[in-house]
Here is the input.
Amino acid sequence: MTTPSIILLSLLILFVVMLFYFVPIGMWIQAVVSLGIGRITIIDLIRMRLRKIPPRLIVDAVINTQKAGLPNIKSDMLETHYMAGGNVVNIVHALIAANKANIPLPYDTATAIDLAGRDVKTAVETSVYPKVIDAPREGFLSAVAKDGIELKARARVTVRTNIPGLIGGATDDTIIARVGEGIVSAIGSSVNYGGVLENPDNISRAVLDKGLDAGTAFEILSIDIADLDVGKNVGAQLQADQAEADLRVAQARAETRRAMAVAEEQEMKARTQEMQAKVVGSEAEVPLAMAQAFREGKLGVFDYVNMRNIQADTSMRDSISGGSDTESMQPPERDSD
Here is the structure.
């Protein structure tokens, strides 16, 4: 073969390959056999190729919905959802499952749920087969009854998906939070912990009556108390802590009063010393005054001797009143005339 013949043959083969790639004859025949003539045309398949939409995905989805009794699902609807970033396979499975379970799920609602980032297939499965949520997920809920006894509870919440509430509805985390709040409130309103232990189903009924599933993507079917244990006596501990705090306050006040008394005592001592200093100063002026009186002739010798005798008598009386019984007190000599 000459070179032009080889080039021509290569171009022919490339044309055939491109033709069968952009014109998927096999898929068109499958669509005609499964759906009938005119449901999906060869032009539709070529358009899908040009728009980078997998024709096999759309063809299989339309065939599945047609065979499941959903004839209103068109290929262009699935193409639009695919180009919007949706999961076509999940949408088809969810629509088929909802149809078989007699769950109302319009196509627009299903696509909105899928584009919102939620798994619509799992949501439909949960509507058929409810799931159980632990509240809390780990550990226990701690609540205190009116008698001060702590109770530790753990609940199991059975829910099923509320399809209309999936758009904008709260998730299961909100269910857990609301159920936990309801359990704590129900235990806290109980008069004593014994009544809660005897009838834990009262907690379930009290929580269910509050309509905790409002505004969520789930419908609460039941709330069962899986575990209920007695904790510590919170009331007694609080009273003990309060008593200890009161004791510390009283001790602080007593210490303040003691410090004030000590300070006042020291102040009185200082005042006493000050007065004593004044007395000593006044006594020091007495000899000077007497000397001045002698010089001025206002004080005689006999007056001075009488004053000394009076001082001696006063000193003797002080010694007798505060002195010892074993020592003989001799009065000081009087100045003779």
Remarks:
- The chain has three domains: 13-127, 131-236, 300-323+330-337.
